[in-house]
## 1
Amino acid sequence: MSTVVVKRIRQGNNSTLSEIYIDDVLICYGLEDLVRDVKIKSKTAIPTGVYPLAFNTYGAMHARYKRKFPALHQGMVEIRDIPNYSYVYIHIGNNFGDTAGCLLVGSGWELVEGDYELRQSKKAYLSLYKRLVAIMASEMVFLEISDEVK
């Protein structure tokens, strides 16, 4: 069993920035919607906790990524078993408008007008995805989300 750790480190007006680790090594940055006490559909960060990851091989997003990365794509990395959430993926995007409740990844970040934005999202996604494919081929992988917001 392996764990991908998402450590939330900063809160913007509408965004939450995190660091993403595998085996205590910083792999990339993450971006989610705002952490809220009461969920607003497609505008709320994933609750802290530990969730299984699995490949989802159906739906429009899967088809889009299969066309975009035909040699690599085995399914969308879905974060499962989140209470009151469904179809939550790790995917490419740059700002909170791209999240819809999902976890975006990037190689860098900037603070722009009070909100965090990711940079080099495709590069970070491909790097993380390749690692997850290798690990998930032989063992269960979980995502652990923790708040350390400053």
## 2
Amino acid sequence: MSMLKEFREFAVKGNVIDLAVGVIIGGAFGKIVDSVVADLIMPVVGLVFGKLDFSNLFLVLGTIPEGTARTLAELKKAGVPVFAYGNFITVAVNFLILAFIIFIMIKQINRLKREAPAAPEPATPEDIVLLREIRDSLKR
């Protein structure tokens, strides 16, 4: 029973709950970034480099069966091995954007954190003050 109690104490700690919330928000945020990359950024990048869709950039590594369309989805469905470097480019750009956004967020959070004010020095006890006064009067 002590193992169950120990696990409960671990799971209820604030850091574990914060981590769980972060993972959930990160998953939702990842979908937003996927959409931004796939729907907004990659079409512009593809237009600049002359290719309209990076996701269909691939090299066929096997033989294509008769009647199979030469699209990435159809080739994968037919079981033809393909080297889908366009998909990798899309995922890499997605990662870079997500990493940059997280960097900016953490930088802003650290900037907003205020330094704790310095703790005031504790008051000197009366007996120490009295002893200092006696010392100072003896020096004169």
